[in-house]
Design brief:
Layout: H1 2-7, H2 12-15, E1 20-23, H3 28-32, E2 48-51, H4 54-62, H5 69-72, E3 93-94, E4 103-107, E5 111-116, E6 121-124, E7 139-142, E8 153-162, E9 175-179, H6 211-223, E10 235-240, E11 255-261, E12 278-282, E13 296-301, E14 304-314, E15 326-330, H7 335-341
Parallel strand pairs: 1-2
Antiparallel strand pairs: 3-11, 4-5, 4-7, 5-6, 6-9, 7-8, 8-9, 10-11, 10-13, 11-12, 12-15, 13-14, 14-15
């Protein structure tokens, strides 16, 4: 039965994961036959489990805690299991606490955001920062959905690094902020997964190759590299405190929306050249907008969230009008920059 189901799911290696639990004197071969075969085997991954009784199962469940060190170090997990499922969004929707625990608000006299990628580093866009800006004048607020949340955690910035090839506009639009102290993870404060790292090794099984080949493979799987229409929808979510659709009012609460990546040939022309370091995406009557810059474009794989883009700029000054479209910094294409500076992540 599961083998038949797998035939009807696009990219079952990525989009389908089956686990089987056998209780008592279950036949091992029969249990393992439930699990669909994957074209790229995931080393060290266990999909079948054998327990002697329901009492054992109850004991295992009671000992499963999300707040231990190992669990809190895991990337891209929305910790609170009470979450509603994320369905299709029409316009901005208010976030619940811990919906997007990697999202941070950047206080730098501009309307910008970022994402937690490790205990010391925030990923953002370069156009939010200037070379004459003092890093010590910047702070980031963590674990909030409302800008004046009394429980917010604020941490200072030790230094920020712009991509060395940033053109002053939107090409190579990526920046890293090093914090002056380590982040303590919790239900509402958590790092996102990044492509081209060990964290996503089992989320996007890749053929064996050098790091650059694996990174390119993952980029194609998640974005089609922006060049062609594969016939399958590639969509994700963006969140921010920026302007509401067709309004100049800045949002007081963290809003999110679903957006779909468009093939490069369908991206409307703007005054900015569309390069390999960008891709375009839009939602149904929804869009990222001014003030959302630096926020994460995330895609879900096996209950974990991977950041594949960063909100960069929009086609129109007024969001939601005139065949609107959002443009995003392509994270996989610039991971060598992250790898150079963020040394507390594993890449190979």
């Amino acid at each position: 039965m599961m083998q038949e189901i797998a035939k009807h799911i696009p990219d079952p290696d990525i989009n389908l994961d089956v686990f089987a639990i056998g209780l008592g004197s279950v036949d091992r071969g029969q249990l393992e036959s439930i699990i669909p075969h994957k074209s790229v085997e995931e080393e060290g991954r266990q999909n079948t489990f054998y327990l002697p009784s329901y009492d054992t199962l109850r004991l295992v469940y009671s000992k499963s805690k999300w707040d231990d060190d190992a669990a809190s170090a895991k990337c891209g997990v929305r910790m609170k299991m009470r979450h509603r499922s994320v369905g299709r969004i029409y316009g901005g929707v208010k976030s619940l606490e811990a919906d997007w625990p990697w999202q941070v608000y950047v206080n730098n006299n501009q309307m910008c955001a970022g994402s937690i990628i490790s205990r010391r580093w925030i990923l953002s866009v370069a156009h939010c920062y200037s070379t004459d800006m003092l890093a010590t004048s910047i702070t980031v607020s963590l674990g909030i959905i409302k800008k004046d949340d009394s429980s917010m955690i604020t941490i200072g910035v030790k230094r920020f690094i712009l991509h060395p090839q940033y053109d002053g506009r939107y090409d190579y639009d990526m920046a890293l902020l090093e914090l002056d102290q380590e982040i303590s993870y919790s239900d509402t404060v958590r790092r996102v997964c990044l492509p081209c790292t060990k964290d996503v090794e089992n989320l996007i099984p890749s053929p064996v190759g050098i790091w650059q080949d694996t990174c390119s493979y993952q980029e194609n799987k998640m974005t089609n590299a922006g060049y062609y229409d594969s016939g399958r929808e590639l969509s994700g979510y963006v969140a921010g405190w920026g302007q509401s659709r067709q309004s100049h009012i800045i949002s007081y609460e963290l809003l999110y929306t679903k957006v779909s990546i468009y093939p490069r040939g369908q991206c409307p022309k703007t005054k900015h050249t569309l390069t390999e370091r960008m891709f375009c995406a839009r939602g149904e009557n929804s869009d990222s907008c001014k003030g959302d810059s630096g926020g994460a474009f995330v895609m879900k794989r096996k209950d974990q969230w991977i950041q594949i883009g960063i909100v960069s700029y929009g086609k129109e000054l007024v969001c939601g009008k005139n065949n609107f479209m959002g443009y995003y910094s392509n994270v996989p294409s610039m991971m060598s920059f992250v790898r150079t500076h963020v040394t507390d992540l594993q890449y190979e």
